[in-house]
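Need Transcriptional regulator, MarR family protein's 3D structure for a figure. Predict it.
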Amino acid sequence: MRDRPDLAAMTETLSRALVEAERPVLAEHGLTMWAYVVLLALGDRPLRTQAALAESIGADKTRIIAVLDGLQGRGLIDRVPDPGDRRARLLSLTPEGRRVRDAARRGIRAMEERVLARLAEEDREPFLRALRTLSALAPGFP
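Structure prediction for Transcriptional regulator, MarR family protein:
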């Protein structure tokens, strides 16, 4: 086996660089990383509770309240009482939330394409396929 850096060392370096490259793109749309994560997680799915959202994105449910307040204040999400549990709130994207999410995603994808262009054309799809496979393992890994 050839010597190589540990996977964590390689992916952490790449992850930090990608996060830093995303910050200006998100700032153009008035989003923080957590706000973008929330918009992506809500997607076009049915309504979900704040607790379920927090769990799905790996955030403490009390820590995302300020993010949700900001998104709601901008008209990007709706929060309505859950008819089955008036203490819970159901979340959904507004049309403006979808527009902002999609615009931010397009900007991030354009930046990612510039990164992927550093790979040989024949290496891009195998790299993305391997990354998808390994990323899918993450919640239950090791």
